[in-house]
Amino acid sequence: MDFTVRNPKRAAEIFATVADMSRAETLTTLHHEQSPDYFSRGRLDPEARRLVIKGTRIGDPSVLVT
Predict the structure, then answer these.
(1) Buried (b) or exposed (e) across 8-46, using 16+ Cβ within 10 A?
(2) Among 4-8, 11-15, 21-25, whose mean pLDDT is lowest?
(3) Contact 41, 52 (CB under 8 A)
(4) pTM summary value
(5) How does pLDDT run across 15-62, given as a tens digit for each residue?
(6) Using an 8 Å Cβ cutoff, are 11 and 30 in contact?
């Protein structure tokens, strides 16, 4: 993400090649992307993970409390 923020034109060229899109399309996409603060730096939050797992079980009759 840091590279993309510092080098949007070069990042657009790379994305365009990989995604088979025009450079203009990918540059527009990058300009409308979330701020770098939105993305994780790779730290795993155990509580967030627990909530995600719990959320996937909603509607699973095997975990219903009776």
Answers:
(1) eeebbeebbeeeeeeeeebbeeeeeeeeeeeeeeeeeee
(2) 4-8
(3) no
(4) 0.47
(5) 889 888 888 888 888 777 766 666 666 777 888 888 888 878 776 666
(6) yes
pLDDT of residue 38: 65
Q: Where does the chain have alpha helices with state H? A: 2-6, 8-19, 23-31, 46-56
All structural domains of the chain with their residue ranges: 2-63
User: Which residue bears the tokens 């949007």?
Assistant: 8
**Residue 36, CA distances (Å) to 1, 6, 62 in order:** 7, 11, 39
Residue at token pair 């990989």: 18
- The 8-class DSSP code of residue 35 comes to P
